């Protein structure tokens, strides 16, 4: 839309006002006093309110944050009257550091008074609260959080970062009824050498938070199983600590309930721990908006994520990252995952594993992904079986015939191991079958039978001990014709994920 002169004048005025406010606030911090401009003093109250709302934007709204409102309320009488007359100006509170006495000890008196002041002056406005505390006196920090949770019916967004020893063990912090809450961001870390059971956790009842749009939790958090309806939820990141008491709570049953309650979800990252495997559903659950899915499987090999994915229809899914801790589990086989037929990018990572996979473990997964464009395979379980299965033979049963980029690495997550289970000849044959028909100049008799079209454009490998296959006759020719072939060391392998995914 083209701006007319009136729009341009208005935006110029707003920019001037914003600069004036910022210069006034800056002057308060440097000179200890404020000299107001006569033109600003003459503004009517409703215009001043709009100016204040534009002062310091937050992540979710354009309301001021932290000490801004307190500062402008002390500029002059008209500014103070305006600030006190509008509770929404006090509804956005961010305190991310603690006041200290001259001897370095924490003085909480004014700290707590400031919180209470903001809560009192915010009336019934929606609250945008951030608490990131280094306070060591846990009883006083708990007093702040008690005030926050007492107003949870007014919460709009809640961001908490703390340690487990700051949470009462006998009465966990609970978000049970926050019908207006749009965003939660919790980080609850273990308290140093304190035993796992010596601290509390944050408990969330998702059924009591029906307006949630984003969930981002890490550490010691617990979710009730009754999820309710979350039709506004777009993004969920559930990364509880593997060693926490809450780890068994984030299992495939909870995630299945979450997905059923959130039909408009666009991005999900979660850790899955052991639990009963989901039964096969007669009808796939349609998630028409989910584009990014990241599953980190704590235990159980492929069986836990398989029981979830086989029940989902994901027509818009672009990126799938599977991070699997095998822990000695036997080789698994994936079901037919009909909901992944449109997937474009797969990252499959194995950790804590020894030895190659069985002949059908990885191929059984790839059979469900005919549209795959990019493939990343990390882990020692990637083997000759995988290379042979990825070799195109033009028989109508080829895996992922549209692949354009492939990345293959041995176990880069454990640098003590320096082994892999892929022979150079199998790697060369796989690449030859997928590049062969890209160039009419290459003699097809030098490679395996291949389909009518090759789609491979680039490949990267990190296989310690393997000779540089780029010097072999077919690969050298392909590189001359335009194939991008990279061989890297373990130190560089971690960078490949962002490059190829």
Please provide a written account of the structure.
The protein has 501 residues and is of the alpha/beta class. The chain is 29% helix and 19% strand. The chain folds into 2 domains: 91-273; 277-501, Alpha-Beta Horseshoe (Leucine-rich repeat, LRR (right-handed beta-alpha superhelix)), CATH 3.80.10. It has helices spanning 5-31, 38-41, 45-55, 68-72, 77-85, 109-121, 138-150, 252-261, 303-309, 361-366, 384-390, 424-435, 473-481, 490-500; strands spanning 92-95, 127-132, 155-163, 173-175, 183-189, 202-204, 214-219, 221-223, 235-240, 267-272, 285-286, 292-297, 312-313, 319-325, 345-351, 374-378, 405-409, 458-462, 484-487. The strands form 3 sheets. The protein has a 14-stranded parallel beta sheet with strand order 1-2-3-5-7-9-10-12-14-15-16-17-18-19, with helices on one face. A 3-stranded parallel beta sheet has the order 4-6-8. The chain has a two-stranded parallel ribbon with strand order 11-13. Strand 18, helix 13 (473-481) and strand 19 form a beta-alpha-beta unit. Helix 3 (45-55) crosses helix 5 (77-85), helix 6 (109-121) packs parallel to helix 7 (138-150) and helix 11 packs parallel to helix 12. The chain is elongated and about 85 Å long. The model is unreliable at 1-8, 28-36, 57-65, 100-106, 242-247 and 439-452 (pLDDT under 50).
